[in-house]
Amino acid sequence: MSDRNVAVVTGGSRGIGRAVAIQLAKSGNDVAVIYRGNKEKAEEVVDIIKSFGVDAISIQADVSSSSDCKEAISKVKEAFGKVNILVNNAGITRDGLLIRMKDSDFDDVINANLKGTFYMMRECIPLMLKADVKKIINISSVAGVLGNQGQANYSASKAGVIGLTKSAAREYASKKININAIAPGMIETDMTGDMNEKAREGVIATVPFKQMGKAEDIAFAVDFLAGKGSDYITGQVLCVDGGMAI
Ligand code: NDP
């Protein structure tokens, strides 16, 4: 077993998760990149990570399936023997007005964003208990803090992630597992890429910094919460949002 810490990053093939996986590798961690369907992109991230002299694997898993999560973490255990850092980043949107929202739009978002986070924590925490370094970072959203019109499903899932984070932080404080959440604001990724110019301008107007964030802005915050600097921090929600949630 390597002396390096092992990080599991869900949704590591693209966007914020990609930046997080690369940043954690730069900080000297081995990384398991979990992706849903984009094998090519996930393999690209693995190659970049390996160029930093640490180890990486990609694993296909749908986080909304408890059996996929179980299997994925058993593959991580097989490959690296341990888990020290878990970043629950995989997430989806299915936006629409509440009164027109289909059951499946609500369920799919809750299953991926909230239940996926729960499943991965349930699999990883038992492996973390005996480790020296044990950190969980859950990616919520400013929509989970403030709510957002057209995102009843998404906001509920991300507010749920905050409740899950705080409860787990209390439950595993005696085991010295640091469990925190990050609430990103508007970040340039595929998720926000299909907004039209008018909608984009409207959102940027609500950001005190008057600009969107980059995936790397979130990656630096994750790296902090995954490192020594967060040893006395647990159950917190760090808004990385150019001031949106002030
Ligand atoms: P992207 O859409 O760019 O990427 C999503 C990633 O999640 C991909 O790697 C995708 O895998 C993976 N994924 C999606 N569903 C599943 C699933 N069921 N199982 C496994 N992997 C899955 O999203 P972002 O990078 O923008 O968002 C990352 C996180 O940050 C999400 O939780 C999102 O809600 C949150 N967030 C984003 C904000 C933004 O402005 N971008 C703002 C606030 C929060 P694949 O490539 O294989 O499809």
What does this entry look like structurally?
The chain has 246 residues and is of the alpha/beta class. It is built from nine helices and seven strands. The chain has a seven-stranded parallel β-sheet, sandwiched between helices. Strand 4, helix 4 and strand 5 form a beta-alpha-beta unit. Helix 1 runs parallel beside helix 2 and helix 3 packs parallel to helix 4. The longest helix has 26 residues. NADPH dihydro-nicotinamide-adenine-dinucleotide phosphate binds next to helix 1, strand 2, helix 4 and helix 7.
Rg (C-alpha, Å): 17 Å
SSE pattern: EHEHEHEHEHHEHHHE
Per DSSP, the total helix count is 9
The largest beta-sheet arranges its strands as: 3-2-1-4-5-6-7
Low-confidence stretches: none
Q: Look at the helices and sheets and give the structural class.
A: alpha/beta
- What average pLDDT do the residues reach? 98
Tell me the span between the first and last alpha carbons. Answer: 44 Å
Largest sheet: 7 strands, parallel
In this entry the ligands are: NADPH dihydro-nicotinamide-adenine-dinucleotide phosphate
Shape: globular
- Tell me the helix content: 40-55%
Beta-strand residue fraction? 5-15%
Kindly state the number of beta strands.
7
